[in-house]
Design a protein that fits this description.
Helix content: 40-55%
Radius of gyration: 14 Å
CATH topology: Alpha-Beta Plaits
Order of helices and strands: HEEHH
Largest sheet: 2 strands, antiparallel
Shape: globular
Strand order of the largest sheet: 1-2
Distance between the termini: 15 Å
Structural class: alpha+beta
CATH superfamily: Transposase IS200-like
Number of domains: 1
CATH class: Alpha Beta
Length: 104
């Protein structure tokens, strides 16, 4: 994701997180994936939140950039995702890692 698409993805993810009162601690939109460190309330299901984020953001991206969808496939994100909790390493280490990726 480059240029305007990258900016739109960033803004869409911020907006969707704000709708659900999810705090974005750190994040980066890379060329083919996204890294997010978010603060999710304990009662919020991580899988439901990620599903919501991927579904809604794909629809919003297709609205702004219809060239990414075809009449046969409306998939924007990959089917899977990786989630880990802050525990084995510190939140500061995760933030530094994301900042390091942004500098690349």
């Amino acid at each position: 994701m480059y240029g305007q698409v990258r900016n739109d993805v960033r803004e869409i993810l911020k907006k969707l997180c704000a709708y659900k009162n999810i705090g974005i601690v750190e994040g980066i939109v890379c060329s083919d994936h996204v890294h997010l460190c978010v603060s999710i309330p304990p009662k919020q299901s991580v899988s439901e939140f990620v599903g919501y984020l991927k579904r809604k953001s794909a629809l919003m991206i297709f609205d702004k950039h219809p060239q990414f969808g075809s009449k046969w496939s409306r998939a924007f994100w990959a089917r899977g995702y990786y989630v880990s909790t802050v525990g084995n390493i510190t939140e500061e280490a995760i933030k530094e890692y994301i900042k390091f990726l942004d500098a690349q």
